[in-house]
Amino acid sequence: MSKKNKGKKVADPNETSKLLAAKISQLEQDAAGEKDQEAEIEREVKKATRDLNQLLSNIESPMTRLETVHKKYTELLADMKKLDRDYSKSKKRADQLQKDQDKGKSELNKTVTMKDKLEKLCRELTKENKKVKDENKKLEETEKKARLIVNERLDSLLYDIQDVMAAKGNPRSEKADIDLDEALRAKIKTIGEKFEMRELHYKALLRSKDAEIQCLTAKYEEQRRTAENEAARCRALSSQVSTFSHTEAELRSQLNIYVEKFKQVWTDVDGLLGLSLVLTAGNNNIAGGGYAEQQQRAFSYVSQRNGRDVQKDQTAREGKPHPYTEARSNEPQHTRDGGGAHKES
């Protein structure tokens, strides 16, 4: 148990350090991407403002300006709706990829756990195989020693038989020789039977050990193939998780771009609506000789609106009513329809 706990304690810090390094790298990439996106958005806002000012400066008629602003507002509103739909689709896809990534990580963890178990089993089988080989070697040495002992005893018996045969020429000891021959015959037979029994025992033991070695070898090969398959699956899952992470990063980057464009659209729509109000009021006061003054006020209002921060856009994205939209909805009907009335007259 202590060895297992020690192994786990060593593995956890390495895994934690890898995860922290990956997270830090991802945060650095996200920060660099956000800076590039902010610079790109700032350039687009400046370009859009410059184009709008240039477009309005080339138009002299207030009604034509109002129609141009209304057309620009319609285009921006359509772009905003399209960006909103793209944002929703990208968010759903990012959520689905996050779920797939979590599932892939879970499968990867299970595979790693299974791989560790299989490696442990392979190590145990290797130790058992080595143990069986050592026992087999000891049995062979024991059998060799037993053979030597039996050979020595047989040699001793042969010498005794030769001595008896040499002394057999004496007639007085004939009966004693017969008794000795019978005793030697019985002794040799007993030794032969014991030797055969021992030989059969060693052969049976060797067959049993050979069968055990073959069984362990087959189990080892099967576990090794299973471990190789699990390792290949682990590599495939790691590649899949890496692909999911890369796709998620790309989708999040696109999602951030859509959000910033969404903010920009709200800023442009807000500025165009304010410009529409100012131009409508200026159109009502043309008869009083204040056309130049109203035109100057309109351009000043557009510049001020384009210079504001994106706090109002965040309020609109959270579902809260924009201050200008709320004020616009509270205006009288004849004030909101002033541009149309002048156009009909």
UniProtKB/TrEMBL annotation:
Does Coiled coil appear among the keywords?
yes
In terms of Pfam families, this protein maps to: Taxilin
* Compositionally biased intervals (Basic and acidic residues): 306-345
Entry keyword set:
Coiled coil
Coiled-coil blocks? 206-237
Q: Which GO terms describe its molecular function?
A: syntaxin binding
Region Disordered, annotated ranges: 87-110, 305-345
Out of the domains of life, which is the source?
Eukaryota
Does the entry feature the keyword Zinc, yes or no?
no
Family assignment?
A: Belongs to the taxilin family.
Protein's name in the database: Contig An04c0100, genomic contig
UniProt organism field: Aspergillus niger (strain ATCC MYA-4892 / CBS 513.88 / FGSC A1513)
